Amino acid sequence: MKRSNKVISRKRREKLIEFQKSIGIRFKTLELLNTALSHKSYVNETDEDLEDNEKLEFLGDAFLGLIISDCLYNQNLYFKEGSLARIKSYVVSETTLHGIGQEINIKDYLLIGKGEEKTGGRYRRALISDSVEALLGAYYLDNGHKQARKLVEKLFYKEIIKVENNRHEKDYKSILQELSQKRFNMVPEYHVINTEGPDHKRRFFVNVTVKKEIYGPGIGESKKQAEQHAARIAMHGLKKWKRLRDHTIEEIKGIKLKNEVKIKKFARDGKRSKDSSKDA
């Protein structure tokens, strides 16, 4: 990974230290944290020999998916793979990442370009969620698997507990894909048919095709959001076909715990980790 040849300014260093203290972590190499919080728009406008956070975002996304999958599997909470996949997709979704980014106020510590700043980029859902993933990737590289896992559990444990109470939103894309594969032996195809508005207020229009039938358009502030909306429209359309009704797929039922003690322990461990970080 490319390193910056320019020393981090005193003011920026203080800002990074402040951010670390606020979420209870510590980087051995402050430069990695700085890179994780450097958007490509900033890197393109600066003379610094600095890398943007896109590679760290890629790494963080993969690491987050692994840890959440491992947590769900080892807690042995769900009976079927389909439920596990839907829960995981919710926990690692852009919506959840954006919410966590807001909780830790990551926007206040991001380096973004002047043009991006003027168009409200610092508050964009996708930019914030990507930055959270980059932070996780950087912390994994800097502190290793064990400490990075602790950070994931601390930031995400509330979301996992939330789905235990069945208060999460349905992941319509996953549900539609499962139904389509089961009934038609094919996966849905999504197509962006139009976009409107400037970069910071862009709206996407997406259609989804299932067995040659087109449903939509789904509309959203991001492509992912529009795809979810399109999948929801398709699900409502398919439910009219009685022979396609499959309650094991369509519904995320009241999720039964195989071992209630384990989930309570997970909640306590997550809370204890969070509380201990405040005392550090």
Polypeptide structure, described:
The longest helix has 40 residues, at 125-164. The chain has 12 helices and 3 strands; from the N terminus they run αααααααααβββααα. The chain has a 3-stranded antiparallel β-sheet. The two termini are 30 Å apart. It has helices at 10-23, 30-36, 40-43, 54-75, 81-91, 94-103, 114-118, 125-164, 172-184, 223-238, 247-250, 260-279, and strands at 189-196, 203-210, 213-220. Helix 6 crosses helix 8 (125-164), helix 8 (125-164) crosses helix 12 (260-279) and helix 9 (172-184) packs across helix 10. It folds into 2 domains: 10-168 and 258-279, Ribonuclease iii, N-terminal Endonuclease Domain, Chain A (Orthogonal Bundle), CATH 1.10.1520; 172-250, Double Stranded RNA Binding Domain. By secondary structure, the protein is mainly alpha-helical. The protein is 59% helix and 9% strand.
CATH superfamily of the largest domain: Ribonuclease III domain
Number of strands: 3
What gap, in angstroms, lies between the N and C termini? 30 Å
Helix content: 55-70%
Q: How many alpha or pi helices?
A: 12
Number of structural units classed as domains:
2
Structural class: mainly alpha
Q: Outline the low-pLDDT stretches.
A: 245-264
* pLDDT averaged over residues: 81
Name of the CATH class of the largest domain: Mainly Alpha
Second CATH tier, the architecture of the largest domain:
Orthogonal Bundle
Query: What share of residues are in beta strands?
Result: 5-15%
- State the shape: globular
Kindly report the CATH topology of the largest domain: Ribonuclease iii, N-terminal Endonuclease Domain, Chain A
Largest sheet features: 3 strands, antiparallel
